[in-house]
Amino acid sequence: MGGDFDAAEAMQRGVSDRAEAWDFIRAFVAGWYAPLTDGDGIGEEELKRIEGQLGLSLPAALREAYQLFGRRPQLFDHQDPMLPPSELFVHEDLGGVLCFRSENQGCAFWGVRLSDLGDADPPVVVQSRDGWQPFMGRVSLACVELILSECLFSDGPLYNACELPAGVESQVPQLFQRIVLPDYPMWTGSDESPVRWFSAPGLLLRQDGLTAECWLHVRGKTLAHLSAACIAVPGRWAQWQGTEPNAGYELPF
Predict the structure, then answer these.
(1) Any idea where the domains of the chain sit in the sequence?
(2) Is the pTM above the cut of 0.85?
């Protein structure tokens, strides 16, 4: 299975600006789905119309995100979807927050404070059970996290999750490579924070929390990828795939 996309390898040096964020998203989408095309973006006229209705200008990074993949719901419309431009709204808290992402049952929102809209790539806040919290330092980084999360929880049988037994949570960085994203809070609260990402070729993993009984979520490109991760990490997996360790893929670490 040589040539499988590895998110950590693709982001070895981090994401220093929004251009690098869009480059990573293009590479990730090509590796996990099919390459982005010009038709996957929302046009300038529609964005201007939405800005007129809202009475404000979108930050450059948010506009660029919509222009890059805003018509490709496969990438952002599963668990905590990015809102289509027509559904953008201003939350009254914190002096006003332009919300562009919602938890699937409306339990939490992600957005940019109105006071930060003048920045090209402003910080993002999340409405968590502990109140509004800093989420990511830049919209472009929040979009990278969005694409990763929505891939992780996308439809199909190639997802699994495990509540990690005591001591196992520290083994995850030894088995998989850390994706260079900052720690950030899970909207459900401090017990499942911080969130960290890992990968291997053909595998994407998210660890919610650092203590015993935290959760590890995994998506594989194939059943063999997924089963290799489930075999490597001891614990009670939500769905056991029943595939033998020699199913054609072994973890590279």
Answers:
(1) 7-151, 157-237
(2) yes
